[in-house]
Amino acid sequence: MRVRVMIAALALAVLACAAPGGAEEVVEDLAGDTPTIEATEPFPTPVGDPQPTPTQAGSDEAGDDAAPPEADSPSQGQAENACSHPYFPVIEGAAWTYQSAVGSEPPETYNVTYQDVTGDSFTYVQTWPDGSVRSEWQCSGEGGLVQTEYGQGQVTTSGGGIELETLSFDGINFPAPQDFVPGATWQASYTAAAEVQGTEIVYDIVMDYVYTNDEEITVPAGTFTAARVESIITQTGGGVDLTFNTVSWYVEGIGLVDNESETFGFESYYELVSYELP
Prior knowledge:
The chain is mainly beta.
């Protein structure tokens, strides 16, 4: 889980500069061990090995040096629900395996599944070798998706912990299918509180998204035509303004296949390795 949350931890750790005596401790921490977010509720790793990378029907199993396969389209009969989006399929029983890395850190693998899926909400679960992180989502009446909490768990630094609490949220994280077209823009915003070394700091986060175009992308899971979504995340609070730039690629019927970002000079990515749809 260390790799996946490193960038978020660095961003929140900077807030510690606003606490008395916090600046020196944060600078020392960023130069040494990377802050990590500990999962608030560990969950067992799903039973069974990750599914193999899908290949085209009738093709031979790819060797280590073979080019990634052209991905098949998902089954038209896969189960869906009111929350499921063509580019963000919320399907209980489905699983996605990603590979993630930050900077020179070695890659880590994690799984994504959905739990407690209803007609108006679901739980997004990331399962890592050392624990899991959950995030709660709601489904709007127009078919859009909203993550109701900004960040979960605790950022731990050498100078103490940063407790996170979402106070309010507005907007949408993924627009309805009819609105998810090239050129579309949307926004989500949060007000959150972080307790830094005993001092509470209230800060605001604004996420601006734009669906720029469709383009071909190759990841370990295959080659896809994907929707490219660029986002700018602005975080203000405690006298510190931070901006993050991220690019994500979504494939119809599969969901997120790639994500790239650069923050504080660290380049990070996570990309789809394999997936299983019921």
